[in-house]
């Protein structure tokens, strides 16, 4: 091959389109025969094709060149005795068939995903998540190539092996300790996106969007943007001077995670009632004041502060009674709480729900959303599906307030023995 002549004849920019089309055919395993066209050629590109072929390629608007004619010119002239394929290789480098490229790339991805497989083997709670991430394309969308994906998955696995974090700690401090940078888990980074997906699978935190949702999702695994934004509402809870002062006044108290980490209650009530909605706690303060039973409100999905408080009170000897909304979201919140601390239902069974439906509360509304289980009373989920009606806590407020009075004989109907905290599930709620 006369490479100097080849580059003068075929290696210029005006025929680069022709060489590129020939190479693409070789990559796809196609023969270098038939015609290739350039839709809007420049005068220089037309002139180059004419010099190559020794004749005018045609007078049409598009420039059309037959590859087998180019092959014949190269062989006949001695520029490339082995023809166009050898010329393309000399000009552009070895041609790797796309099938071979795909096989090589898939093998590289298999090696990258090995760290996920090892995580699922060591910590089965991540198995379903790891399988889903492998097949839904999230890693490929975030990293694009196996080379970029390898450090991404290695960092993600290091994060997930440390979860959940107990006691809760700062997200930035955690990132610095585990990944070597305080900003490694900042919003928008690929490792933060992937690790948060795994954290949600671990804790069962629901889907959502926005900064507040991401803050809550991290907090569900014990990682906090800060130690003052995570809070929990209490009423008539005692155990330190601040709590005692608020309980004496019969007023609600907002506790931050920082306060709970530094000065948790030193005592616990024998029985603590827990509600989902702040309206219940506010009404209890209005009706009973300092004479009501101790009450904690989780305000929807339990925050890191709420879980920290409840775990501390449980270790100090408290037993829990829980009530929430009779809807699918309420069941998910209750199940999340049950995975962290044991509790008994407080007017939160199928019997209580059916009584509410029969009472025909004006506050009842049609049930919506995806069904959820009720492990403390499987009949409750079945009853919700049967009646298709949601009943919020405010609709049964009179019953709850009656239970919260110190003179009440019993702390509310329950459905059997205390339910133990269950291991965190890996599937999404």
Distance between the termini: 66 Å
The beta-strand count equals 12
* CATH architecture heading of the largest domain: 3-Layer(aba) Sandwich
Low-pLDDT regions: 415-429
Q: What general form does the structure show?
A: elongated
Total helical elements: 21
Structural class: alpha/beta
Task: Describe this structure as you would to a colleague.
The protein has about 425 residues and is an alpha/beta fold. It is elongated. The protein has helices at about 5-10, 15-25, 45-55, 65-75, 85-90, 100-110, 115-120, 125-135, 140-145, 145-160, 170-180, 190-205, 210-220, 240-250, 255-260, 280-290, 305-315, 330-340, 350-360, 380-385, 395-405, and strands at about 35-40, 65, 170, 225, 230-235, 255, 270-275, 295, 320, 345, 365, 390. The protein has three domains: about 5-95, no CATH class; about 100-225, no CATH class; about 230-405, Dna Topoisomerase Vi A Subunit, Chain: A, domain 2 (3-Layer(aba) Sandwich).
Name a few traits of the molecule:
6-stranded mixed β-sheet, CHP02679_N, single chain, disordered C terminus, alpha/beta, 21 helices, CHP02679, Dna Topoisomerase Vi A Subunit, Chain: A, domain 2, 429 residues, two-stranded antiparallel sheet, DUF2399, 3 domains, 12 strands
Describe this structure in a few short sentences.
The protein has helices spanning 3-10, 16-27, 43-53, 67-77, 84-92, 98-112, 114-122, 127-136, 138-143, 146-161, 171-179, 190-203, 211-220, 241-249, 257-262, 278-288, 304-316, 328-338, 350-359, 378-387, 397-404, and strands at residues 35-38, 63-66, 169-170, 223-224, 231-235, 253-256, 271-275, 295-297, 319-322, 344-345, 365-366, 389-390. It has 429 residues and is of the alpha/beta class. The strands form 4 sheets. A 6-stranded mixed sheet has the order 6-5-8-7-9-10, with helices on both faces. A two-stranded antiparallel sheet has the order 1-2.
């Amino acid at each position: 091959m006369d490479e100097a002549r080849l580059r003068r004849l075929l290696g210029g920019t005006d025929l680069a389109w022709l060489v590129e089309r020939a190479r693409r055919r070789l990559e796809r395993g196609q023969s270098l025969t038939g015609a290739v066209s350039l839709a809007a050629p420049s005068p220089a590109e037309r002139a180059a094709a004419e010099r190559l072929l020794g004749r005018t390629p045609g007078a049409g608007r598009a420039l059309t060149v037959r590859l087998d004619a180019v092959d014949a010119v190269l062989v006949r002239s001695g520029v490339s005795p082995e023809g166009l394929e050898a010329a393309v290789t000399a000009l552009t480098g070895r041609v790797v068939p796309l099938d071979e490229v795909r096989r090589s790339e898939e093998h590289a991805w298999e090696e990258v995903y090995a760290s996920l497989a090892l995580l699922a083997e060591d910590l089965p709670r991540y198995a379903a998540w790891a399988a889903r991430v492998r097949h839904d394309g999230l890693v490929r969308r975030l990293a694009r190539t196996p080379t970029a994906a390898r450090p991404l998955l290695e960092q993600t696995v290091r994060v997930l092996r440390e979860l959940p974090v107990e006691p809760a700690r700062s997200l930035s401090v955690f990132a610095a300790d585990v990944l070597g940078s305080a900003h490694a888990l900042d919003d928008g980074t690929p490792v933060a996106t992937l690790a948060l997906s795994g954290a949600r699978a671990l804790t069962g935190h629901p889907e959502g969007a926005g900064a507040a949702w991401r803050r809550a999702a991290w907090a569900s695994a014990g990682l906090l943007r800060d130690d003052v934004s995570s809070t929990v509402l209490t009423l008539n809870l005692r155990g330190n001077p601040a709590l005692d002062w608020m309980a004496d006044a019969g007023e609600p108290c907002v506790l931050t995670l920082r306060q709970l980490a530094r000065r948790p209650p030193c005592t616990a009530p024998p029985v603590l009632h827990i509600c989902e909605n702040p309206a219940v706690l506010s009404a209890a303060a209005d009706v009973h004041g300092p004479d009501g039973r101790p009450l904690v409100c989780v305000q929807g999905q339990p925050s890191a502060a709420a879980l920290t408080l409840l775990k501390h009170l449980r270790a100090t000897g408290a037993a829990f009674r829980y009530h929430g909304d009779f809807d699918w979201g309420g069941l998910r919140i209750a199940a999340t709480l049950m995975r962290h601390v044991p509790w008994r239902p407080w007017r939160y069974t199928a019997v209580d729900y059916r009584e509410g439906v029969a009472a025909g509360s004006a506050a009842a509304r049609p049930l919506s959303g995806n069904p959820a289980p009720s492990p403390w009373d499987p009949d409750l989920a079945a009853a919700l599906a049967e009646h298709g009606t949601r009943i919020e806590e405010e609709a049964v407020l009179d019953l709850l307030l009656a239970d919260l009075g110190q003179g009440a004989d019993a702390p509310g109907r329950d459905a059997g023995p205390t339910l133990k905290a269950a291991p965190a599930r890996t599937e999404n709620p």
